């Protein structure tokens, strides 16, 4: 009787397990087919597309950049600035014959970049540039709505399954994810996973199979949604390697900027000034005088990003972007505060043995910025040149 009951129980278990195993095998097989198709037909032009959710919240297309030994530029709202010197227009070139992929959107900051990198198939030879902006550190907490609008459940699940990343770091990331998503409209799965993972190793191990299955399903969806982009660019030609003279390009940059910056002492593009600054000169005077750049939770997220890069064994090129000194002097965020922030951010990267591009001495460089915060003609040219020389 006992053996009969055992056999019946075993049969019931196998009835559940076998379909799951077949489902996983089929899922992996379809994923493999899509991955091979994407790899065979990927073209670098896809990498220049700004703020595309399939690319930026996904894995499939970004992994192709890393496999191709291209440059991955991780940024935010500065990436679409409409100047000829934007690196999207200057790679590949005679100094660095590598293609460039950009990833980012408004409100993408350190934690989202950490999650993204933790989800990708990285290796120590990857060419990765990460832009860090002062504006991210101006409030105690980061923009929660902005975080949630850019959050990728796929990338988070993939990171949680990444064996290169320590449990301790996964817990730190999950703690921040739960803190930022608990009151959001995001999938309840994310809230459950992050709540369990943030401080309970055993619970994390229990839910790992569910995260694994969720990741495989989301990865399949991302690969399928990537196909239209792949097919749209399948017949595009290989990008021409540009022959650049950066000294000459600087002259051109200044000439172009002078035509568009004529009417204001902040040296921002005229139309931007007339629309956003001129009507508000009285309102913005000293409005940032009480801002504390040293105590933002963004520093906590920035440290997570740096620690994650170290655990993955990658050496990103960290760009500490400066900001428009004329504007921030006027709005009361003192030069001393700004320089203290720059020094802290730079030192944190150097403590991780990462190379840093320090741009703080360009705060008052005319035409370095397009507006009050985003890089412009000379600013983007500087970064393009430094990246080209760094990633020869």
UniProtKB/TrEMBL annotation:
Domain of life: Bacteria
Name by which UniProt lists this protein: D-alanyl-lipoteichoic acid biosynthesis protein DltD
Organism: Miniphocaeibacter halophilus
Upper classification of the organism: Bacteria, Bacillati, Bacillota, Tissierellia, Tissierellales
Gene that specifies this protein: dltD
């Amino acid at each position: 009787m006992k053996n009969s009951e055992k056999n019946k129980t075993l049969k019931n278990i196998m009835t559940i397990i076998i379909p799951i195993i077949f489902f996983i095998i089929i899922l992996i097989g379809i994923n493999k087919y899509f991955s091979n198709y994407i790899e065979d037909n990927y073209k670098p032009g896809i990498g220049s597309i700004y703020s595309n959710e399939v690319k930026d919240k996904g894995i499939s297309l970004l992994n192709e950049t890393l496999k191709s030994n291209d440059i991955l530029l991780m940024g935010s709202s500065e990436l679409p600035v409409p100047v000829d010197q934007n690196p999207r227009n200057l790679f590949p070139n005679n100094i660095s014959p590598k293609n460039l992929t950009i990833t980012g959107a408004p409100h993408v900051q350190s934690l989202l970049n950490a999650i993204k990198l933790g989800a990708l198939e990285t290796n120590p030879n990857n060419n990765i540039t990460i832009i860090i902006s002062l504006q991210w550190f101006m409030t105690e907490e980061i923009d929660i709505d902005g975080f949630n609008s850019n959050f990728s459940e796929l990338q988070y699940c993939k990171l949680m399954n990444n064996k290169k990343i320590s449990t301790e770091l996964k817990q730190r990331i999950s703690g921040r994810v739960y803190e930022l998503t608990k009151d959001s409209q995001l999938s309840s799965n994310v809230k459950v996973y992050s709540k369990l993972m943030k401080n309970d190793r055993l619970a994390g191990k229990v839910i790992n199979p569910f995260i694994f299955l969720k990741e495989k399903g989301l990865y399949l969806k991302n690969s399928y949604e990537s196909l239209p982009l792949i097919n749209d660019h399948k017949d595009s030609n290989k990008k021409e390697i540009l022959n650049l003279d950066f000294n000459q390009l600087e002259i051109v940059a200044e000439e172009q900027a002078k035509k568009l910056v004529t009417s204001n002492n902040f040296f921002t593009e005229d139309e931007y000034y007339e629309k956003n600054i001129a009507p508000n000169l009285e309102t913005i005077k000293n409005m940032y005088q009480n801002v504390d750049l040293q105590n933002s939770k963004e520093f906590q997220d920035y440290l997570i990003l740096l620690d994650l890069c170290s655990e993955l064994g990658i050496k990103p090129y960290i760009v500490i972007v400066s900001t428009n000194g004329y504007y921030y002097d006027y709005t009361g965020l003192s030069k001393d505060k700004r320089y203290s922030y720059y020094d802290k951010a730079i030192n944190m990267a150097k403590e991780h043995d990462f190379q840093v591009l320090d741009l703080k001495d360009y705060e008052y460089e005319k035409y370095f910025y397009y507006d009050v915060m985003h890089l412009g003609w000379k600013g983007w040219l500087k970064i393009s040149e430094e990246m080209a020389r760094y990633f020869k």
